[in-house]
């Protein structure tokens, strides 16, 4: 025990007594977290949340910041509680043992990998719709289009993690401006939309049922758990004993930015479109941006909306690939095989390419995948595992007794229970 304490003291011996001022690297990570979260889930959130009615949407808006900030802070703290340089799969094994580590690594992979599949479908649909409705050209066969798009994104992935994070942070700037422009552009077109349901206060049972089924989509829409492991590892390397404090600052700013931007965009969309039009967008399996492009007879919006959707989905694909590849590599290593790093990278990329391409070609329902795969499985890793660790792991004992722990646990249980409900015929 003393040896372990001494090693910790030595590790942080060179750490400054106080935090340094906010750096460019902090801003890069803040935008990287924002970029990972704001993607396909956000572009489908107005559809799913709007269909639930006015009051459920207002309640979800109020829950958005605490639900996402506390959960991601908990997962970050969990990764920070491990040895320096340990990613999430290593920390799980360190705290819970080899068997539990293998199980959580498996769950971690299956929590993130379906999101890559969702983005593959959404990206293919967005580009295909853009070519057909805005460029007025016949899209190539779906299988070819999907293959080219996914291969192009994987080419960026081959440049390495730091290049991915920097590329995503650079893509965020024009994306924020474009999303804000689009939300403001829609203001003159507000026709009440969802306000038509404001006078109809739902019965408590109906309201709870709507919120119950909507929370998994909400969880997915603001989720950036796939990049949290890499984020925490880098924070520990940069700030040592102060990593928790600085990472919380970065997370809070990232979440304030994403919640403000997304909620303004969501309300602008649902005040513009009627519930019937939102239902039509869901039936067409299109993001809200692609639907708006087809809905408005305006060349600017018709071209801008699909391009915004493309950027949003592409950057989120890159961010989630980091987590999915991390999980897959962890699974391979835990089988006892230890291929060379370059070989493992190539195997991972090939597997991702083939499976993403097949699913994008088949074109399953995106919202259906979010409801049954994305949100609820993520909830077990993002919400419940860190809270369980706070109760059981000595290294996280200092976080016990906080009200936010109860809140995060309840949200996680709600998301998982909705999955069980959705699977019942």
UniProtKB/TrEMBL annotation:
Highest rank taxon of the organism: Bacteria
InterPro entries: Amino_acid_transport_2 (IPR018227), Hydroxy_aa_transpt (IPR004694)
Membrane topology type: Multi-pass membrane protein
Presence of the UniProt keyword Cytoplasm in the record: no
Reactions listed under catalytic activity: L-serine(in) + H(+)(in) = L-serine(out) + H(+)(out)
PANTHER family given in the database record: SERINE TRANSPORTER, SERINE TRANSPORTER SDAC
NCBIfam families hit by this protein: stp
This protein's name: Serine/threonine transporter
Originating organism: Pseudomonas paracarnis
């Amino acid at each position: 025990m003393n040896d372990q304490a001494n090693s910790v003291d030595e590790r942080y011996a060179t750490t400054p007594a106080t935090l340094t001022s906010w750096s460019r690297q902090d801003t890069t990570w803040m935008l990287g977290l924002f970029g990972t979260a704001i993607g396909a889930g956000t572009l489908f959130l107005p559809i799913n949340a709007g269909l639930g009615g006015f009051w459920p949407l207002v309640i979800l808006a109020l829950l958005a910041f605490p639900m996402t900030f506390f959960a991601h802070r908990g997962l970050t703290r969990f990764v920070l509680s491990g040895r320096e340089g340990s990613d999430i799969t290593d920390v799980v094994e360190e705290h819970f043992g080899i068997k539990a580590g293998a199980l959580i690594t498996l769950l971690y992979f299956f929590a993130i990998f379906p999101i890559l599949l969702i983005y593959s479908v959404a990206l293919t649909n967005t580009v295909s719709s853009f070519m057909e409705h805005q460029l007025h050209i016949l899209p190539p066969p779906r299988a070819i289009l999907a293959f080219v798009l996914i291969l192009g994104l994987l080419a960026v992935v081959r440049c390495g993690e730091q290049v991915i994070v920097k590329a995503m942070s650079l893509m965020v700037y024009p994306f924020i401006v474009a999303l804000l422009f689009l939300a403001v552009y829609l203001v003159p077109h507000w026709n009440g939309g969802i306000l038509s349901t404001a006078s109809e206060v739902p019965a408590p049972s109906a309201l709870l049922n709507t919120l119950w089924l909507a929370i998994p989509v909400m969880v997915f829409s603001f989720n950036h758990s796939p990049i949290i492991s890499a984020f925490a590892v880098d924070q520990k390397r940069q700030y040592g004993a102060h990593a928790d404090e600085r990472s919380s600052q970065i997370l809070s700013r990232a979440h304030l930015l994403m919640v403000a931007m997304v909620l303004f965009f969501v309300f602008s969309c649902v005040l513009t479109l009627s519930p019937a039009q939102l239902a039509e967008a869901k039936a067409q399996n299109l993001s809200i941006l692609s639907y708006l492009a087809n809905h408005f007879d305006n060349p600017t919006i018709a071209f801008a909306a699909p391009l915004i959707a493309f950027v949003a989905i592409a950057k989120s694909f890159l961010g989630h690939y980091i987590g999915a590849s991390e999980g897959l590599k962890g699974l391979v290593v835990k089988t006892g095989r230890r291929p060379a790093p370059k070989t493992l990278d190539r195997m991972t990329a090939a597997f991702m390419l083939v499976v993403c391409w097949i699913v994008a070609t088949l074109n399953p329902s995106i919202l259906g995948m979010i409801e049954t795969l994305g949100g609820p499985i993520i909830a077990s890793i993002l919400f419940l595992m860190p809270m369980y660790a706070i109760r059981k792991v000595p290294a996280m004992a200092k976080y016990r007794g906080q009200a936010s722990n109860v809140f995060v646990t309840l949200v996680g249980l709600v998301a998982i229970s909705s999955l069980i409900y959705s699977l019942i015929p």
